[in-house]
Structures are given as structure tokens and as C-alpha cells.
Amino acid sequence: MSSSYDVHNPVVVGVSRSSAGRRAVEWAADAAARRGRSLCLVHTQEWPAGAAPKERRDSPDQAWASHFRATGQSLLDDFRESMMQRLPGLEVTTRLLDGRPASVLREVAEEASLLVVGAHRVHGPGEAVTFGGVGPSLVGHPPCPVVLALEPKHQGAGSGPVVVGVDGSAASVPAVAFAFEEAAVWGADLRAVQVRRPRHGDWPADLQESYADISEALAGWQEKYPQVTVHQEVVMGSAAVQLAEAAVDARCLVVGSRGLGGFRGMVLGSTSRTLSHLAPGPLVVVPRAAG
Predict the structure, then answer these.
(1) Mean pLDDT of all residues in 242-246
(2) CA 106 to centroid of chain Cα atoms
(3) Do the Cβ atoms of 112 and 9 come closer than 8 Å?
(4) Over the chain, what is the mean pLDDT?
(5) How many CB atoms are closer than 10 A to CB 160?
(6) What would the pLDDT profile of 193-241 be if each residue is shown by its tens digit?
(7) Contacts of 192 (CB under 8 A, 6+ apart)
(8) Where are the domain boundaries for CATH 3.40.50.620 in the chain?
(9) pLDDT tops 90 at residue 245
(10) Do residues 112 and 246 touch, judged by C-beta distance below 8 A?
(11) 274-284 confidence digits (pLDDT tens)
(12) Beta strands, E only, the chain
């Protein structure tokens, strides 16, 4: 299926009956309202084994099937009414679809400007994040940016700057573009961070090279968004760990993805996928297709 990615397309959000689902819907609604776009609420229904999504009218299972569909539509209608009351003037549409959530959302994302999904954080030893199988499988695949609407780890998080990972590659260009827009619509600062791997060598020279990379990546965007205050930072260590630390108080953390991998020198998808578990708050993964 060819990509029809367009920044004027609606913001699409996966709707579920969980606190993570509500958080995703609210994040998506705010994003749509701030950007002057419509919001599309999508709920997918996986039918039990042996059940047909479209029963015949004379089938004894017709009543059950109708109730199953009505329950899903009711969930969408409740969220639609809630978001329209929360943000008067916001255009909200709903879609009730059949299939596995990840597959359905990947297809719907072909006509989205932004795809938002919720996620639960599991606290305790070996802290992890669960997405109901949806989040990680979406990272790097849709043609539009994907937001994993993680619950902030720390109190007060979300009120700080937009943090963007910059590595000097073409993959980070659309991430920088998204980060500037996000900072502008929220009146937030932008923190551009490059992480270098520890290695033997001339650190001052490495530092100079990194700041040159950042300046090149930001070139032109500061002129387009003069109201955004930009901070540049270079740190050493693991890309995912250092970016997560830099985003402790951030409104969101934005990273690029090549689809086949994250930052320069990292293994297949390691940075964006590791950040889906380490990020202290909402994580935005922007593919090269979005550039």
C-alpha cells in the first residue's frame, strides 16, 4: 500500500477501555486542536474464534454480534462526546473496525498525520512497558509519526521542553521538524541532544563535531520558528539511556527512525525500541517517510 502521508490529515488515536487508552485520546485531542486538524477515534474489535464479524440476519448469533458491535461503538461515542466538550470546535470522527489492533492501526496510519497509542508502565524490578502488543510493533513502520502516550514516570513531568535526539543523519531531519512544530504549538523550549559513544580519541574534537552536527540539523528551523528557544547539548553514553535521562521533565521525547534502525551505529531498531521501555513520558518516533 503506497503512503499517503500528509501533515493535514487527521490525528488518529487507538481507543481502548483503559487509563492508557484515555491518556492517548486526550494527548491526541490536544495535538489535533493545537494544530487545527481533525481527530479520528479508532477502536478495533477482535472477534472470538469461530465468530463471524457479519452474522446473517437469521443467525442465532445475530443478537450477540449486534451487541458486540454496539458496545464498541458506544465506547467511541462516549469518547467523541467527551473530547468535543473538552475542546469545543474540535472535529471528531469515529471508526469501528475489525481485526488485530496493530494491523488495523498500521493501515489506518496511511492516512494520518499522527498516530497515537496508549501504553501501560509496569513498575517494579525490571520495569517494563506493555502496549497490548500494539506499540512496539508500530514503531518505525507507519509513514507518519507514532506517539506512545506513556504515563510520566515523575510528578511534574510533561511541563518541560520538547527533547529531540539529533545524530547528524538524514533520519533525524523529520524528527527535528516535528520537534520544532511541537515546541511552537505548546510554547515550549526545545532541547536538541546528541549522544556520542564512549571511545578513545580527542573529546574536544568530538564535541566540536557534535555541535556542528546539531547546528546543521537545526539550520533553517530556528528561522521558521523564531519564538522557540533552543538549547543544544552533547552527552556521552548509550543513546537510549542518555536521551531518556535528558527527557525526565520533557513534554515529550522525539526521535527519528530509519524504519530499519535508529541512531547512527546502533543495531536494528535498538534506540527507538529501547526508548519505548525507558522513556520517562510520551515518546514520538518519526520515520524518514514523514520528512
Answers:
(1) 93
(2) 13
(3) yes
(4) 80
(5) 17
(6) 999 877 655 666 778 888 888 888 898 898 999 999 999 999 888 888 9
(7) 164, 166, 176, 179, 214, 217, 218, 230, 231, 232, 233
(8) 1-151
(9) yes
(10) no
(11) 787 788 889 99
(12) 11-14, 39-45, 92-98, 114-118, 120-122, 128-130, 146-149, 162-165, 190-196, 230-236, 252-257, 283-287
Q: Where in the chain is the domain with CATH 3.40.50.12370?
A: 153-291
CATH class of the domain whose range is 153-291: alpha beta
pLDDT of 258 > 50? The answer is yes
Query: Coil, helix or strand for 266?
Result: coil
Do residues 76 and 41 touch, judged by C-beta distance below 8 A? yes
Residue pair 154/248 in contact (Cβ under 8 Å)? The answer is yes
Quickly name the fold that domain 1-151 has: Rossmann fold (3.40.50)
Cα separation, 115 vs 135, in Å, equals 11
pLDDT of 164 strictly over 90:
yes
Type of residue at 73: Q
Q: What is the pTM of this model?
A: 0.83
